[in-house]
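Whiteboard transcription, Tuesday session. T.W. wrote the structure tokens on the left side:
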């Protein structure tokens, strides 16, 4: 571990996609970076593992040889209703599949090669301003110092951030609580196809990833689970199996691990790009519904925007206040339409009759359907 008296240019809290990508880009500019990750690589995460192709060139540019990983390229979409109707549509931009277990681990290895200091099993407990240009990061492994701190800690906001007077969470008691559930399965679903299956108060995505596995991942309300004795299997049988396509996937596929990975207490909330001198990116800047499309690509794109602004700061080309203003402006320009589209789509999905009629309508309006999909995928960056 680094001596505690070293002052890093930048400290990053959380080593998911957003944090690792930011670390790599800053290190490429000669900026010293320490990244704290409370878990240990490699690890599985609840995620649909479909990445919009907009991020492909970015990942190659970082130095990840993804073209050699033999990943499935996905250009066909199917969306089903509980009544058994399937809407089919080709994907203009499309995506590729890779498990978070593999992707985060590859990025971790690349960051190490680029001389990022990565501390695993190292949870950050607090950050305090220790001088004009100095912040002290208190972790389970001791205290560290950095000029700039970035938070990429994902969808669960640490308590020390929640307590910050500048943190404006807009979660209220009426916000719906969701759970996310993920399995890896072996399925005959075509490698170029992603399917989204609706059920009461939720939807389930299936698409191919690496290792000849498919990722089967769904989002539903915590209420659905509570109403089924908090038993995931019982909920699947009582609710998900009402969609005939899902029943087939669940009963006819080989499950790599019969027990799913489950996360709870997911809420979707408004956005904030910084809090008390900490720049936020990825889900930390606001977790978005999976239907906003491509939270992973949004996290990676945000890392590129923030890396560009911070690099100017470390080259003495601008002040930290200017970084904050420019980052916020670019973030809003890059993501506001996608977030809006996601909110509308979220309202259309997971409702028995509304979803069914919406899919029938969209089936007859391919131009509208294409437009909606375009809104959830950004341009290459
Ligand atoms: C059910 C579901 C399905 C999804 N499907 C897709 C999909 O198919 N495609 C897509 O693009 N997006 C999808 N998303 C969204 C996507 O998973 C997220 O947008 C993405 O993971 C965000 O990455 P991140 O780096 O911001 O956060 P994360 O990947 O969550 O990383 C945050 C990291 O911070 C660490 N951390 C947290 N607190 C601390 C602390 N105090 N100290 C140190 N470390 C800390 C955590 O351990 C974690 O590793 C889905 C989301 C859900 C819920």
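and on the right, the sequence the group agreed on:
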């Amino acid at each position: 571990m680094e001596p505690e008296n070293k002052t890093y240019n930048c400290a990053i809290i959380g080593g998911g996609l957003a944090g690792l990508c930011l670390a790599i880009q800053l290190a490429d500019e000669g900026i010293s970076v320490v990244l704290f990750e409370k878990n240990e690589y490699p690890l599985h995460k609840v995620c649909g593992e479909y990445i919009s192709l907009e991020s492909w060139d970015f990942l190659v540019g970082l130095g990840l040889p993804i073209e050699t990983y033999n990943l499935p390229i996905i250009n066909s979409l199917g969306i089903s209703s509980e009544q058994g109707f399937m809407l089919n549509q080709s994907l203009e931009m499309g995506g590729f599949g890779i498990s978070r277990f593999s992707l985060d681990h590859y990025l971790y290895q690349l960051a190490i090669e680029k001389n990022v200091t990565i501390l695993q099993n190292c949870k950050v407990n607090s950050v305090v301003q220790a001088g004009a240009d100095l912040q002290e990061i208190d972790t389970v492994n001791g205290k560290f110092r950095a000029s700039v701190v970035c938070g990429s800690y994902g969808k669960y906001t640490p308590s020390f951030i929640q307590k910050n007077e500048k943190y404006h969470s807009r979660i209220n008691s009426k916000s719906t609580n969701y759970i996310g559930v993920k399995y890896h399965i072996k399925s005959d679903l075509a490698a170029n196809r992603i399917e989204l299956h609706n059920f009461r108060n939720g939807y389930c995505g299936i698409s191919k990833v690496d290792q000849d596995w498919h990722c089967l991942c769904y989002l539903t309300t915590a209420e659905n689970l509570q109403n089924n004795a908090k038993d995931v299997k019982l909920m699947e049988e009582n609710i998900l199996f009402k969609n005939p396509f899902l029943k087939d996937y669940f009963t006819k596929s080989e499950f790599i691990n019969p027990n799913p990975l489950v996360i709870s207490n997911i809420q979707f909330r408004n956005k904030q790009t910084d809090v008390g001198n900490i720049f936020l990116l990825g889900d930390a800047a606001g977790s978005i519904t999976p239907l906003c499309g491509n939270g992973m690509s949004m996290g990676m794109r945000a890392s590129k925007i923030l890396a560009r602004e911070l690099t100017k700061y470390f080259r003495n080309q601008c002040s930290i206040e200017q970084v904050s203003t420019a980052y916020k402006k670019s973030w809003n320009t890059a993501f506001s339409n996608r977030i809006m589209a996601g909110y509308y789509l979220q309202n259309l999905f997971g409702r028995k009759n509304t979803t069914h009629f919406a899919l029938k309508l969209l089936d007859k309006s391919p131009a509208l359907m294409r437009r909606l999909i375009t809104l959830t995928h950004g341009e290459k960056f």
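Someone added at the bottom: The chain has a mean pLDDT of 92.
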